[in-house]
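Run Sugar ABC transporter permease through structure prediction, thanks.
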Amino acid sequence: MKAINKWPYFFALPFVLTYLAFHLYPTMYSLVLSFYEWNGIGDKAFVGLQNYVRLLTDDPLFFKSLYNTFVIMIMSIPATLLLGVTVAYLTFNAAKGRLLLQTVNFLPYITTPVAIGFIFSFMFDWQTGFVNEMFIRLGLLDEGVYWLQEPWSAKAVIALMIMWKHLGYFMIIYLAGMTAISQDIYEAAKIDGAGPLQLFAKITVPLLRNITVFLVVTSIISGLQLFDEPKLLYGGWSGSTQIGGPDNAALTVIWKFVDESFISNSNFGYSAAIAYLLFVIIILFSIVSYRLTAGKEESR
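Sure, done. The structure for Sugar ABC transporter permease is below.
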């Protein structure tokens, strides 16, 4: 009988133990904790499904945070997809400066969230912000607008932050897909009289469908976990510790989770219920978005 080589298991053991201790165990423990009421110090009190019932029936701020998250996603994801594929196409066909264009567009993606929060809070400040000053000088405004203190403009600023940060990432992914498209297809279309716009709309975009599906699904998953941008805009460099922004218009699900866990109530059982309900929502919307964007392709 051939002896079993134990060395692969030996070298994999540190990772497995680390995963069990710092990922799987906390995940399972938080699931159990969602059925308790606990402030992190005293004894746990078993409440069964009460945390979930309260979350779904007696917590309007949870639905407000969920609504805000979806609105910001609707504002940012389609626009970022459209801009990403357009910028990628222009960069791919650029005669000169292609490397410079890639670098400039990708830099925001590797910029730290703290820096992004500082930049946008400064740009949209109602007194000294660059945006108000520019509009006033152009004659489009008579006085500064409170961009960060109006519910809809607050959402729009956060969506703009997301677009600015992720545009370079979308562009790089689309560029990678464009390099895989055979140039013979473009040459044949050009011989038939297709122009640049037709090449883009009839060849490039359809052949990048799988990449678009990937970006849509991953964007929805990351969008439902939105936290850094609104938190840093209203609780960091903006000079305030305002939770949720004006009229809670910038409150996202993860921000509510953090607030329930460590700031307002310190109820770890309730915050664990928020986390697992969000987990279920992410799964459902990931499946739905995949079916909607990739279903037609699979049925062919």
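The chain has one domain: 41-294.
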